[in-house]
Amino acid sequence: MTLLTDRYRRPIDYLRVSITDRCNLRCIYCMPFGGVSKLTHDDILSYEEFLRLVKVAIKMGISKVRLTGGEPLVRRGVTDFCRHLAALPGMKSLSLTTNGVLLEELAQEIYQAGIRRINISLDTLQPERFSRMTCRDEFDRVWRGIQTAEKVGFHPIKINVVVMGGINDDEVVQLAQLTKDRPYHIRFIEFMQFINNDRLIPHHFVSAEDILGRLHSVAPLEQVTSRHSNGPARHFRWPDAQGMIGIISPISHHFCPSCNRIRLTADGKLRNCLFSDRELDIKLPLRQGATDAELAQLLTESIINKPEKHALQSDLFRKCQNRPMVAIGG
Ligand code: SAM
Ligand code: SF4
Fold this sequence. Notes:
Number of helices: 11
Bound molecules: S-adenosylmethionine, iron/sulfur cluster
Shape: globular
CATH superfamily: Aldolase class I
Number of domains: 1
Largest sheet: 12 strands, mixed
Mean pLDDT: 91
Low-confidence stretches: none
Strand content: 15-25%
Radius of gyration: 19 Å
CATH topology: TIM Barrel
Number of strands: 12
CATH architecture: Alpha-Beta Barrel
Order of helices and strands: EHEHEHEHHEHHEHHEEEEEEHH
Helix content: 25-40%
Oligomer: single chain
CATH class: Alpha Beta
């Protein structure tokens, strides 16, 4: 199979699929203050529609798919959907990003359905702070969910931490220290600006270099170059630690030259860059009876038009204008 490349010769083999805009948390950096106006059942692609699009994408060279949301585990029937996706010929990696609230109940099922790689979001180890950051009192459930995921066999457990100055940045070292005696990958993500959170950015942005500096001051970190180095994170570890530390810095150290992905939103839009407002509707053609070849043409168009780089690196305070993160999926 010839791998798809965009006009900058970047191979595109990764599709992130947001299966719902709904969520059981209200993270202050992600969800607009008043919530989002919920899409109706009809606005959202059905599992059959997602499956058809993923099949077409796989035929074109996509081999890795990550499910996201909103919170993907709140959509009913997610386990069966995972099973069908995992069984598609050509699917090399099926993964999921979750806030962990429902993992205690669902970790076993989704593992059996074929998900092997999981990212769990957790920004703090303090229950009260968790409630302030997510507007829900769910720390204990998430923590138990992480333990369950580990027991069930997910390996490595990747934990995503959005670092906000004055809110949870004082926990960077403590969170990173989880890697010392647990096989966890703790991934620190720079706080990114979207339509809903622009007032917060000037007060709470912390750069990746600042985060790294704090970790280095505890003990020198080794940079890790391995197969884990694919993707947007730079990896580090403390000598003898079981796990790794990832730094994801889309703002200060952008990874556009190696970007390998496109996104499909729950309402059927193709997004070829996290920060670009340009989208291509694939839902209407799909529902109007487009053939697989016509759908493949739309995917190609989205890939070909992938921008060379996003604009945030030159303007930290620019924002993505048309969607909050909860409606994109990360
Ligand atoms: N609900 C799931 C979760 O929280 O993991 C999946 C969707 S969430 C939008 C995907 C990822 O985006 C999470 O790791 C979350 O922390 C991250 N995220 C959300 N808003 C962000 C922001 N403004 N800046 C950086 N990361 C953000
Ligand atoms: Fe929900 Fe995930 Fe956004 Fe938090 S980061 S509000 S859990 S979608």
